[in-house]
Amino acid sequence: MLRIAVPNKGMLSEPAWNMLAEAGYRLRSNPRQLVVEDPDNDVELFYLRPIDIAVYVGRGTIDVGITGHDLLLNSGTEAQRHMDLGFGASTFRFAAPNESPIASLADIEGKRVATSFDKLVHDYLVRNGINAETIHLDGAVESSVQLGVADLIADVVSTGTTLRNAGLRIFGDPIMRSEAILIRSPRLDEHDERLTILSRRLQGVLTAQRYVLMDYDIPVEKVSAAVAVTPGFESPTISPLHDKQWAAVRVMVPKAKVNQLMDKLYEVGARGIIVTALQASRM
Ligand SMILES: Nc1ncnc2c1ncn2[C@@H]1O[C@H](COP(=O)(O)OP(=O)(O)OP(=O)(O)O)[C@@H](O)[C@H]1O
Ligand SMILES: O=P(O)(O)OC[C@H]1O[C@H](OP(=O)(O)OP(=O)(O)O)[C@H](O)[C@@H]1O
Ligand SMILES: [Mg+2]
Predict the structure, then answer these.
(1) Which residues pair with 3 in a beta bridge?
(2) Domain regions of the chain by residue span
(3) For position 185, what pLDDT does the model report?
(4) In what residue span(s) does the ATP phosphoribosyltransferase catalytic domain sit (predicted)?
(5) Which of 13, 232, 249, 267 could be a cystine partner for 7, CB 3.0 to 4.6 Å?
(6) Local confidence band at 283 (pLDDT 50, 70, 90 cut-offs)
(7) Which atom, in ligand 1's list, is nearest to the CA of 116?
(8) List of residues 6+ apart from 206 with CB closer than 8 A
(9) Helix, strand, coil: what percent of the chain each, to 5?
């Protein structure tokens, strides 16, 4: 069985569970369950803290896992980034009090930086030739400056609300941009068949989320012009209609572009344009 580590709590957990459910895997039925066997799909799910997932996968005791890219780099383990999962986007940034003179990377020299991601911060400072002390805190890092244990912080920023409420402002470039990723053990072959099936299923979920099916009718002589607007993945399906002057086209298009594409197709001469959500896909 392929052993898969899944976040048991935190921001990444629910989207990860939803994605696995969409991909056909069996989830736990109560929050006290730590392991779920799913013999039908030849996998075993281990519910673990997101921060620990790279440790297990890096050591090869678990084959693959879902975690944040920032957590992977911070872990310093040999787990490999295998696939981006399109949720849990965040940036990791420095922030200092609104009234503080700290406003650039160089100003961090000699200061105390509070963070939960020590290695990420330490490596970034070393790469940039800055000497500073990192102070490890497990959470609520934003309070550390006001409480006097640090001069600035480095933390996950999503909407920026927590920073604002704590009287902090970001400065400098993001230390990194992160999103949820599938990681794989260094002991698991990149082309392992069980991993290929899992990746293909997850990719299918991403495609079903990002694409829709578009159908339209188009005068036969305008098919080429319409296909140029909606080329699809491989090639659109063109079917004859009872009226020989017209054809029907069926094609996948990016959900985010649906309205622009319908405007263009209408201009080209398409009519009866309809859009249908995808339930599932395997590309
Ligand atoms: N708004 C957000 N707040 C915190 N983490 C986020 C956010 N958006 C995405 N993430 C990602 O979630 C991961 C953080 O997971 P973590 O284990 O810290 O859980 P958490 O959501 O912070 O919950 P907790 O701190 O209670 O454990 C990181 O990869 C981070 O980039
Ligand atoms: O920019 P925002 O949208 O405000 O989100 C960022 C905040 O969310 C996270 O905290 P979390 O909820 O994980 O609590 P923690 O500090 O205890 O980890 C992160 O550490 C920031 O504090
Ligand atoms: Mg957190």
Answers:
(1) 44
(2) 2-88+179-190, 90-177, 211-277
(3) 98
(4) 49-203
(5) 13
(6) confident
(7) 18
(8) 85, 86
(9) 35, 35, 35
Terminal Cα distance for the chain, rounded: 24
Nearest to 132 by CA among 121, 143, 142: 121
Tell me the ipTM for this assembly: 0.94
Strand runs (DSSP E) across 179-231, as ranges? 180-184, 211-219
How many whole angstroms separate alpha carbon 26 and alpha carbon 153?
A: 39
Mean pLDDT, the chain, whole residue set: 97
Domain spanning 211-277, CATH class: alpha beta
Structure tokens belonging to residue 99: 């009234």
Question: Which pLDDT does position 54 carry in this prediction?
Answer: 98
Which residue puts its alpha carbon closest to atom 1 of ligand 1? 158
Domain 90-177 carries which CATH code? 3.40.190.10
CATH of 2-88+179-190, one of 3.40.190.10, 3.30.390.30, 1.10.10.10, 3.40.1440.10: 3.40.190.10
Mutate to test the pocket of ligand 2, among 121, 142, 158 (most ligand atoms within 8 A of CB): 158
Quote the crossing angle between the two packed helices 193-210 and 13-22, to the nearest 10°. Answer: 100
Domains 2-88+179-190 and 90-177 share a fold: yes
Structure tokens at 192: 């392992």
Q: How many angstroms separate the CA atoms of 209 and 278, rounded?
A: 7
Confidence check: pLDDT of 211 > 90: yes
Atom of ligand 2 at shortest distance to CA of 158?
Answer: 1
